[in-house]
Every structure is written in C-alpha cells, then in structure tokens.
Amino acid sequence: MSINANQIKELRNKSGAGMLDCKKALEENNSNIEAAVAWLRKKGLASAGKKAGRDTSEGVIATYIDGNNATIIELSSETDFVGKNDKFLSLADKVVKSAHQFEGNDTNQFLASGKHESTPINELIAEHISIIGENIILKKIGKIGVNKGKIIPYLHNKLSDSIGKIGVIVALEGEVNDEIEEFGRQLAMHIAASKPMALNVENLDQNVVEKEKNILREQALESGKPANVVEKMIEGRIRKFLEEIVLLEQPFVIDGKTKIKKVIEELKSSNNCDFNVVGYLRYEIGE
User: What is the pLDDT at residue 20?
Assistant: First the structure.
C-alpha cells in the first residue's frame, strides 16, 4: 500500500514524530493513522511535539574546523544531565558538521532545508527529542574563515575534542608560526574569560558608546563641575570603558597590563612577519 504525503503530514501533526518514522509507522499499520500513532508511542517516537515548548537553558557549544574555515553552534537542552548524554553529544557533532556544509548561517533556513546525509536536520532533532525525552533547540550558528592564516579554537569545560560549555574561535590572517599560534590559543582563552563585545572600536556598536556617554554625562553633571571639565571626565571614562569591552583595547590576561593590540605589534616585530586578528566568535550556553 502506497503512503502519500498528506498521510505523513497528518501523522506528524498528531504525533510530533519525524517524517521517516511516520512513513515507517504508516507502512507497518496499513495507513491507519490511529494505529500508527499507537505504534510510534510504543517505539517512544511520538512525544517530540509535546516537548517542543519546554525551556532549554542547558546544552553544549560545538565547533568544527575544516582548514581555514570554522563553524560553531549552540545546541540547547533542558538539563545539564542530557547536555552530557552521549546521544546528545553525537547529535551536536552531526549538526555542527552539517551546518558547516550548509551555505550561510541562518538557523531557520538550515533547520528547514539542511541535511545530515539524507536526513533533514529538523527531523534529526525531532527524533532525538523523542529518544532522549527532552526539548532540544538549535539556537544559533556562527561561521568564520581566513584566506591565509590559522583558525584557533578553545573550549571551556570540554566534553569532547570539539564540544564544551563555552566555545571560542579566533581567526588569524597572515603569516602564523608556532609562537603566533600559541598567542592565538592564549587569546582564545582570554576571550572566553573576558567576554569582549567587539574586536576593535570601529566594529563596536556606537549606540553602546553613546548610551554609556549619556550615563557618564548625567553622573558628572550632578557633581556641579563645569561643562568643559565634564567632557574631559567623560573622555577619560570612555577610554576605560573601551578597555573593558573591546578586545584589542583590553589588557592581555597573560601579564594583565599590555593591551592586546600592542602585543600583536610586538609579535609582528619580533617574528618579522605580518598577521592580524581579523575576527572571533564566542558562544556560551544560555547567552
């Protein structure tokens, strides 16, 4: 007996199970929808839809590096216990590799049309929801690459070689020897700890700067100081603010005082080579 798309759709709506499981259930039950729902429930595959709305604040960050290009994802679960489950970790690995092959980093587009081998990603996740028993959500995808250089990863609270609770990818463009690669690893650890908002001042959202200036101005004016003094106070405090949130302006954690942009210039000079930090991605569960 042939199974048509409308029957599969109806069964999916009733059960929340994956498309392939619905097709199999209909084949096993002579296209009887109610019998197919019961079959899926017995197999533990009919509960994904009911779990779809539950909160997900745990999970993992997964990374994949292929030469000069890298992908990072946040895959969330309801509990930390499931976030460390082997099936969940295997799913994260499959999803990040599939996302790497997918053009672009739009999560909705990837869920709608991305595939792992021949299985649609949304179906793969739905099947794991049914098997594992918790809601699972792919929250975001990030990609970064270089033309000539090195991609440096770092994972905090590692669960495998490519999965952890905090993930950082640093992109170094140019000539990268062993010393500079080691700097890249240290920088990735620095980013994990310091949570910069932007690579440099030019890339920083200027609305953030203006908001901070307005707060500082109100605070300074309350002191009764003259306007010209207030502006100088704001200028000094903004410099301090930028040192806290802009990566290249931050003091490097290795010595706690030298700005990262100066460390880069010193490395260029001592190694007689040209390289730059052209980007980074930092993902942490729940942020």
Answer: 81
Tokens of 286: 């729940």
Residue with tokens 């200027």: 206
**Tokens at residue 182, please?**
């080691």
Residue 146 three-state SS: coil
Nearest CA-CA partner of 128 in 97, 104, 93? 93
Task: Report the distance separating Cα 249 and Cα 259, nearest Å.
Answer: 6
DSSP 249: G
DSSP letter at 141 equals: E
Domains of the chain, earliest start first: 5-46 (1.10.8.10), 58-160 (3.30.479.20)
Q: What is the pLDDT of residues 59-95, one digit of tens each?
A: 999 999 999 999 999 999 888 877 788 999 999 999 9
Tokens of 253: 């954690």
* 109-148 exposure pattern, b = at least 16 Cβ within 10 A, e = fewer: ebbeebebeebbbbbbbbbbbbbbebbbbbebbbbbbbee
| Contact present, 115 and 50 (Cβ < 8 Å) | no
Backbone angles phi, psi at 60, to 5 degrees: -145, 160
Query: Which residues of the chain, if any, have pLDDT below 50?
Result: 49, 52-53
Cα–Cα distance, 190 to 132 (Å, whole number) = 35
CB atoms within 10 A of CB 153: 20
**Per-residue CA distances from 117 to 20, 43, 63, 72, 102 (Å):** 14, 23, 19, 19, 12
Beta bridge partners of residue 152, listed in sequence order: 170
Helix runs in 198-282, H state only: 206-221, 227-245, 260-271
Tell me the three state secondary structure of residue 171.
strand
